[in-house]
Amino acid sequence: MRTTRRHRVTPYLFLLLPLSLVTFAQLLPSLFTTTLSFHDWNIISPPKFVGLEKYQQLVTSETLLRSLRNTGVWVVGTLAFPVGLALVIAKILTIVEFGRPIYKAIFFVPATLAPTIAAIVWRRVLTTEQGALSALLPGEYTSVLTDPTLNTFVMLGVWTWQFLGLNLVLFLVGFESLPRAPIEAASIDGASGWQIFRLVELPLLRPIMLLVVGNAVINSARMFDIPWVMTAGGPGRASETLAISLYRESFLLFNMGLGAAIGVVISILTLVFAVRAFRGPA
Amino acid sequence: MIRRPPTAFRVAAHALLIALAVVWLFPLASVALVLIKDATQFRALAYWTLPPLADVVPNIVENLRTAWTRADIGRYFGNSVLYAAVAGIGSGLIASLAGYALVHLRLRAPQSWFMLLFIGNLFPFQMFLIPLYIGLTTINLYDTRVGLILVYLGITLPFALFVYRNYALTVPHELFEAAWIDGASPWGGFTHIFLPITFPALIVVFVFQFTWTWNDLLFGLVLSESARPVMTALSALTGLRGGVPPSTLIAGSLIAALPPAIVLLGLQRYFVRGFVIGIEKE
After folding, report:
1. B143 and B57 in one domain?
2. Tens-digit pLDDT profile for chain A (282 aa)?
3. B42 and B86 in one domain?
4. Does the predicted model carry a pTM greater than 0.80?
5. How far apart are CA B5 and CA B11, in angstroms?
6. In this predicted model, what pLDDT tens digit does every residue of A88-116 receive, in sequence order?
7. What is the CATH number of the domain that holds B182?
8. How far is CA A237 from CA A99, A259, B122, in A?
9. What residues make up the domain containing B24?
10. How many other C-beta atoms can be found within 10 angstroms of the C-beta atom of residue A248?
11. Is the dihedral of CA A267, A218, B224, B248 positive or negative?
12. Considering CB atoms only, which of B97, B131, B250 is closest to A14?
């Protein structure tokens, strides 16, 4: 009898510690933030219920709309460069075998760096005060980081440098695990290299493609580290992403309700991909 | 047999790869030049001019020493070692409890318990920032190591569980049935069978969560001042207020870059495995 009880109650005890940690760090906070987004709160006076006002503010404020647009640029740009370019390079590396390990190593090294460090490294390259690039360029060099129309794209380049290696490694794993039979059959039937890639290999790569794209969308829609270290969202607030706006509104301007509303918006934007990719922090 | 690509294609491919490799190596070369000069040489010499060869090693040592002691990177490095090690090992161990219970013990509605434990991970971390800041302040754990450890554990746990659950599904259930018939307790089945068998999952989780915690900038920024992790401390050194000489900043970045690089390169196999774990099983 004792054994049965042990086997009936103990399983739940195993869940106790994991569940309390997750409740503390994620479950209660998500509920709190969602509730807070319907309130006006500056941390000092008590929160006041304002309905959808914070969301209204979000879609009418020029700063926050720009932040939303920048986040869109980050997501689309991420799919084009660190993902799209990685796919191209992976395909090329499966065709040309010479030097493959060296190329792979070179592209992967930045992927081992934290985004914070990637940003510090590239600031040294791009700065006007004794920068590595300005020393090579003839004539006057004005920093591309202070140009509000350019800097998001420049930082996207930095992100490509940092993030491409991981996607490349994953795509290479994908290409290696492709079944050979359909590719050889297509080849015998006279399909061109491009046709094989588009009609045979790409569809077979679908699982890994979903994984890479999901991971990329989630990471780029939440982008904070690189713009925070490189421009702090500036000049002014021109290169802010939603994540930076959330930080600034909540912890520098103490618009807690607005910050929470931005958090909810980022959640909605990434939820589809998060559910699909079913992934964790990485 | 797949046809050998035409020479023109191979030449073009290598031209593209070499051009990209140069771009990829350029920033690393740029910071290497900062690292091998002392402050005076950095100011006096042109950027790409090398210092006297005999100075290189002493300069690197001196720059690393200055960063470690004078910029206090040593202290923050210690904090990050603590956070990343505890999150890296702890999240795996705690997740293993739940992974075991969910797959091999008799629970009501294991799928629902899993969703409850995992669902927080579908939200971006920004959703948790405001409540965690307020929560830690309320229970007097703001800017404490304990507070940050709790947060990092709670954030890294769901993905650890995801890995553990998938791994647990590959362990034959009969092993535990046999043990229970022999009179083993659920706890005995965990320590004697489950933990040893799922050791590879612990390494996969460690690689991911050590790296993720080490690279975190945002939680450190919001939840700590003196108990800061190293990335947050580094990013503060880039600012106008806390600015340090370039050689110190780059040396500090190198120090901060080493642990995850060593973990990732040393355990690369497990890293890729962690990524594809979701698509190979299910």
Report:
1. no
2. 445 666 778 889 999 999 999 999 999 999 999 999 999 999 889 999 999 999 999 999 999 999 999 999 999 999 999 999 999 999 999 988 889 999 999 999 999 999 999 999 999 999 988 889 999 988 888 888 999 999 999 999 999 999 999 999 999 999 998 998 998 899 899 888 889 999 999 999 988 998 899 889 999 999 999 999 999 998 999 999 999 999 999 999 999 999 999 999 999 998 887 776 654 433
3. no
4. yes
5. 10
6. 999 999 988 889 999 999 999 999 999 99
7. 1.10.3720.10
8. 44, 15, 28
9. 7-70
10. 21
11. negative
12. B97
User: Are residue B97 and residue B16 in the same domain, yes or no?
Assistant: no
Same domain, yes or no: B170 and B79: yes
Cα–Cα distance, A10 to B164 (Å, whole number): 19
Tokens of B187: 């706890």
Cβ pair A211:B276 closer than 8 A: yes
Using CA atoms, how far apart are residues B109 and B114, in angstroms rounded to an integer? Answer: 9
Report the residue of chain B nearest A263, measured CA to CA.
Answer: B127
Unique residue bearing structure tokens 């210092």: B51
CB distance B120 to B79 below 8 Å: no
Nearest CA in chain A to B281: A207
Residues of chain B contacting A167 with CB distance shorter than 8 Å:
none
CA-to-CA distance for B29 and B48, rounded, in angstroms?
9
Residue A227 and residue A115 in contact, taking contact as beta carbons nearer than 8 Å: no
